[in-house]
Structure formats: C-alpha cells, structure tokens
Amino acid sequence: MDANATGADSLRDLDEEVTRAVARIYRRFRAERANGELGDAAVSALSHLHRYGPTSLGALSEHEKVTPASMSQTVNRLVELDLAVRTPDPDDGRRVLFAPTEKGRALAAESREQRHRWFRERLAGLGAEEQDVLRRAAAILGAIADD
C-alpha cells in the first residue's frame, strides 16, 4: 500500500471517529432536557433569540439551516406559547422581528443550563491534560464549522 492510500485511510478513520463522537455528544445534549420541553427546533430558535435578540424569520431560517416555511411553524409555536413575540423592525416597517418574552428568556436559560450541566460534570472529572486536549479540539472543530 502506498503512502497516499495510507493517508487517505487514516483521514477516513479520523473522519468516522470524530463524526461519531460529535453525533453522540449532540444526541446526549438533546436527551438532557425536561420532559415536555419544546422540541429541538423550537429550543434552538428560542435560544438564538435569547442570545442575539430580535431576529427576522429569514435570519433565523438561515442560522438554523431550515426553510422559512419550517421556521415559520417554529416561531408561530413559540408565539402561541407566549415564549416569543412579533415586533416591527425599527429599520424596515414592512419586516417583522421575533424576540423572546420574559417567559421565553427564562426557559432558554433554564434549558441551556440543564443541557450543559452533565457535560461540565464530565469535564470536571477529566485531568488537566485531557481538558487541554479538548480545548484544542474545540477550537479546531469550531474553525472547521465556520469554514
């Protein structure tokens, strides 16, 4: 076997290992929520509104990588549950922005805390060297995601 084939096999193995690990972490984050809590799409949209403030339907759709029709259903549910409100865009009166209500902000903060608590507990159980490796890996994965 030549060096190129070995390198490709090594990259393929790394790709599969990292993809599996990230998928497992993602599934675990999704599992760490209260019974009856909103679905993934609604929690993600609400968290975005909480973090970044009033946002248009188009910007939310783009951020979540879903169609505007799908995001429309999501934000309509948030509005129905009094977790978000529609507000006029101060820069363009024809556009509508979505913003979290106090109830929505509280739910987003609580959801985030609950979803991350188990992970912080696991991180605390690692040694300093393992934590440093994860810091470097997080920076690399973040750069790949932003590419």
Give the structure's gist in a few sentences.
This protein has helices at 3-31, 40-52, 57-64, 68-80, 102-124, 128-146, and strands at 55-56, 84-89, 92-100. The protein is mainly alpha-helical and 147 residues long.
Describe the structure.
The chain has 147 residues and is mostly helical. Strands 1-3-2 form a three-stranded antiparallel β-sheet. Strand 2 and strand 3 form a beta hairpin. The chain starts with a helix and ends with a helix.
Topology:
Elements: H1 3-31, H2 40-52, E1 55-56, H3 57-64, H4 68-80, E2 84-89, E3 92-100, H5 102-124, H6 128-146
Antiparallel strand pairs: 1-3, 2-3
Helix pairs in contact: 2-4, 2-5, 3-4
- CA-atom Rg in angstroms: 19 Å
Mean pLDDT: 90
Q: Give the SSE string.
A: HHEHHEEHH
Tell me what portion of residues adopts beta-strand conformation.
5-15%
What are the main properties of this structure?
147 residues; mainly alpha; three-stranded antiparallel beta sheet; 6 helices; globular
